[in-house]
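REVIEWER CHECKLIST
Item 1: Sequence provided? yes
Item 2: Single chain? yes
Item 3: Sequence as submitted:
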Amino acid sequence: MKKLKKLIPALCMLLVSAVLLGTTTYAWFSMNTSVAANNLGVTAKSNASYLLIGKADNATVKTGSDIKVDETASNAKVYPVAYFDKVEAATKLGNVTLKDVNASFENKAHAWFTANNGNSTASNDDVKNIREVTEGTADYMVTYTYYITLSADSEDYLGNLNIAMTERAKLGSETTDNSSAVNVVVKVNAPKTKDGTAEDQYVNLTEVKTAGSGSNVTVYLTSKTSITVTVYVYINGENSAVTSANATALSGKLNLAFDLGTNNA
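Item 4: Structure as written out by the authors:
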């Protein structure tokens, strides 16, 4: 069992609708004053009994190969937001260099920002009122937490956990598919070595890829411990689809696949 090629496709259905308030509209963030995320469900399935997922820390039933985790986000509302793995000296939000807004923004890791745009027909050409957003803030992202572990008959695993967004499509009857604005950040809290302590590793998924060809994090897994996976689903304010004209036509369905590679334990 040195190669545990286990695949967990997690289906995340996110329905987003935006309502314009008042007669004055702005592009990018400000026009989406009421964006609802509804019926986000995650279903995890393993093609063998080794890799398991659950909603409680290491409390997943360790029999069978199909593990289902169902969630519903009723009436959740989020404003668009932008995510950066790290803010460099030249990093821009739209047409504005972030460090010029606030020098403390430079070198920030895993940073989230919101803003307004003065042009109602574009997404980020006249960005203003930039503010930092705390990770996990309910007004800007829908958060789900899950735990991945191994079944009792599995060998310890050390290697890559590959995370890919394998599907993204509109959910409603919109004539235009604006689902590209729906993105996801996945934070994995796991040890990277056998004797290591758990640490956070992030992947920001903005493009659709095949299972196993996404972004890797390094994990050490055993049947007696769990690693924590936090999923942040958000509307990417820098996406060109986020304009006043599309405010009522933003929806998306996401598939996430988690794949283990070669076991180096």
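Item 5: Key structural point noted by reviewer: The chain has one domain: 7-260.
Item 6: Recommendation: ____
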